[in-house]
Amino acid sequence: MPVGYVQIPVGIAGPLLLNGREYSVPMATTEGCLVASTNRGCKAIYMSGGATGVLLRDAMTRAPVVRFGTAKRAAELKFFLEDPLNFETLAIVFNRSSRFGRLQSIKCAIAGKNLFMRFSCSTGDAMGMNMVSKGVQNVLDFLQTDFPDMDVIGISGNYCSDKKPAAVNWIEGRGKSVVCEAIIKEEVVKKVLKTNVAALVELNMLKNLTGSAMAGALGGFNAHASNIVSAVYIATGQDPAQNVESSHCITMMEAVNDGKDLHVSVTMPSIEVGTVGGGTQLASQSACLNLLGVKGASKDSPGSNSRLLATIVAGSVLAGELSLMSALAAGQLVQSHLKYNRSNKDVTKASA
Length: 352
Description:
This protein is of the alpha+beta class. Helices cover 41% and strands 24% of the residues. The protein contains 12 helices and 11 strands. It has helices at 34-47, 71-82, 84-95, 129-143, 167-172, 186-191, 197-214, 225-236, 243-246, 283-292, 304-329, 333-340; strands at 10-18, 21-28, 52-62, 65-67, 102-111, 114-122, 151-154, 175-184, 220-221, 249-256, 261-271. Helix 1 (34-47) packs across helix 11 (304-329), helix 7 (197-214) packs across helix 11 and helix 8 (225-236) packs antiparallel against helix 11 (304-329). The chain starts with 9 loop residues before the first strand and ends in a 12-residue tail after the last helix. Belongs to the HMG-CoA reductase family. It holds the Pfam family HMG-CoA_red. It catalyses: (R)-mevalonate + 2 NADP(+) + CoA = (3S)-3-hydroxy-3-methylglutaryl-CoA + 2 NADPH + 2 H(+). One of its GO terms (biological process) is sterol biosynthetic process. Pathway: Metabolic intermediate biosynthesis; (R)-mevalonate biosynthesis; (R)-mevalonate from acetyl-CoA: step 3/3.
């Protein structure tokens, strides 16, 4: 039962020039420097001609776990589910749950006599967890006829995997998989980002790639993707806890055009967003979605609003990565945080 609201400051970063269109990106955060930093990254991208984002995959997952009396019997169900000849029948059963939920694939893994079944499906403009769960339940009920000895332990067996860092999401993807890139001109790197291409490339290699590998990172080959993802998620009514896998990101930087310009990209395999349902219906969050032009379900092309939102998230992360890495390369991180620290501002009357 709701008892009130916890207020979080909201700022706008942008314009973010992405795929030829400009977006004003709402960010809800208690970190004073974050919006200003992301805004600087947006400026660098804009002055260099914009960024390009491409959606690679779109599939929410749910993975129930079932148990049999023997491992042999569990393997029989695995072979049945992964047989292409059975997919059409399973898809018909699964798709009964929704007008928009469409089964794409089933990937199975065995642990002894236990079978984990990872169902992937498109979910329109919804984030889709409930949708895919309903479809999975339909299939489990259907399977009981030919596999009456199947004991359903749980509709979620963590092979999905939701709200946890997991290699399966990093490798296979979950939700929307997006890659976003831009070429930042040499003069923009110097004048806007206050650093140089060689310093950024070296820092990215040692920090985001080598350093993350030394730390045993799982999907964390970036500077602070989760900062931007969390801020946009809270502002637009997404599930903040899904920031865990949605922030999986590898940031790449290399010198191009004879070493003068910087090619930067972020690849994010598990962006989980929706533009209908859940927190997207709250007034403030709905207004933020409207600001981006992705509010509600697309009538002309179901799923296009949520796919665009995922691409905007990736573009915003690209801007955030550019700016923070530049601050680090120029030795300005501490100075910028002290300048924009909220403890130095009187925000107690901000809502008045």
